[in-house]
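Why does residue order matter? Because the sequence determines the fold. Keep that principle in mind as you read this record.
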Amino acid sequence: MSTRLSLGYSPCPNDTFIFHALTHGLIESAADLEFVVLLDDVEALNRSAAAGRLDVAKVSYHAYGHISSDYVMLRSGGALGRGVGPLVVARTPGLDLRGKRVAVPGGRTTAKLLLELWRPEGLELEELRYDAIIPAVAGGEVDAGLIIHESRFTYMAHGLLALVDLGAWWEGEVGELVPLGAIVARRSLGAAMHTRLAGLVRASLEYAWRRPGASTEYVAANAQEMSEEVRRQHIALYVNDYSLDVGVDGERAARRLLERGLSRGLFPALREPIFAA
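Structure:
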């Protein structure tokens, strides 16, 4: 008899690349598990996890600060690294952002947390789905936008300029990797299942790296608005050795980010451990 688990991740190329093998029956050791997959925008996944609707999910590190009582982070499958941070873009070079309307990709995204840790006083923030931000900035609906995912590869084609690289700011200010998103699992699943899930996600990524063509159709089907080149760039940037295991550096970076959010009173005290063994 199989065990059913709800699994949520985004349709972005990095996530579909990582999870393709696991959710398409290509990992033999997962044969007794049935994954009910939800593909959705990361902020929607943040909300679904907060509502307790998912057993396993990709969420923002920022969102984890709000759900640590019920979820633990797995060491595999996440997105973090160097040169991967969100950008603030605008139509006007050198725009002073104080008092300006800035579109952000959701209230609990790591991008928004980084902006709040960096931002000048007096920004007027407006939440939009991540893929609606570039059109809103280009169309003059907002003064600037905080972009994530594949938008960092396409904003220039819309006549926009990068004002701030928040990832570069974080790396320079804190000296750590930029932690963007993590895979979480319900604490109630138990330590043995946590260990098993982390191993399966790792195995799925290793499969993807060994057979990069196997997931091409699945990745493309969920990112039809992207060119093949942008899909490749997306995977190359956001899928790296830290996706295989966060390692000591990744865990330290995550803790530094969460500690800074805690110091601002943005979420309650964390429940330990935050990473599954």
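The chain has twelve helices and eleven strands.
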